[in-house]
Amino acid sequence: MQHRDGYIIDVSYPLHFHKEMQPVWLCHTIQTLGCAVPDISKPYRYCELGCGPGINLLVAAACNPAGQFTGIDFNQAHIASAQALAKKLNIENIRFIESGFEEFATNNSEKFDFIVSHGTWSWLPPKAQAGILQLIYQSLKPQGLVYLHYMCYPGAARLTGLQKVLYETAKITGGNSVQGIQNGMQLLRILANNGAGLFVDNPEIEKELLALEKELPAYLAHEFLTDYWHPQHSADLHRIISQTGVRFIGSADGFENMDTLSVPGNLQPILKNLPGQALRETVKDMARNQHQRLDVFQSSPQTLDNENHLDLMNQTVFRALPGMPSPGPLEFKTPIGTIPGPAEMFSPLLAALAQGPQSFYELRQIPPFKAEPGLLLQALNMLMWADYAHPVRAEQETAPACVNLQAWLDKQQLPLRLLPECGTAIMTQTQAS
Predict the structure, then answer these.
(1) Does 180 lie in the same domain as 148?
(2) Per its UniProt record, what Gene3D superfamilies does this chain match (predicted)?
């Protein structure tokens, strides 16, 4: 097992695509919350910290030709392979830089409209976290967006015992990180099968172990073998990030922005009457037993008035995604249980989208949504969350690099389908978070 600054570097991170960090998705999600966002119909700059092998950034660059994309990672093998692939596929609006975050923050002179980081913060040493904060403070443009994924309490607490066994087993394993994680998983299974108190007293942890046993060892190695495995309470994380001058706006997961759906109904009156954002977010995490968050922060946020907000929403165009169901009732399998999608609401919406791209204004003319734009927005957010629909990219400049990237993905048998008109991609089979 090889580490650099406490993080493993001897095993490459497997493919994971995250739609929530793509620019079209981010802008739409934050605009639905009533805030002005960067105009991505014009040239903009986007920086990913901890880009790994670069798949999220390569998709973003290929599908969004108006943007300039920068990926930062301290793993030499990740950067070398990403650079070679971008060159091979003629994706020209992208660059990859081998650097630690603190070093890049010190040397960087560019300003960014987006600074995003997934799967890094909770696994990093303090100096690397300080580099992220420094970059946000000095390099984020006004109204620029920060996307930060991290592990949070209370949900992540159930993983602490498992992580420690995996980490300590890997430390004394003679082979690489994959071998270390395999040995650790074998030991955890032996403990579970022989009645270790952790599993007896906490039956849910047995379910966690079963879920982990289905994952790729390389993914588990990156997830659990860092020297700095550190979940946080969201309120504490928000206070830290606020030191850079940005403000918490909401989640990149649109479902989590809808308290009436994502929080159990009997807890909603309690939540509504709680003063203070920090306490409310803490209670939400408890209500959902949240174990990770996809938080979005903004520099100098500007709240839209009702007229401008509705006007911008009216101009947003949505299209059906492959696999969208036929008109009828829906069921959304959410982290808090199955939520029904009534046919009287979703059938006409699905029928309209099946005819082709539709603007928010056009969809507002459907009877269930007349004079109910908030209801329409909620329905569309659920369709987006379920990968049934997506906003269309505002500018429709051609994206020729998508052809090359899709051909490469198909050759590698990677389950990712590019959607250049939406500035994103969709996974064609289940993946881990």
Answers:
(1) no
(2) Vaccinia Virus protein VP39
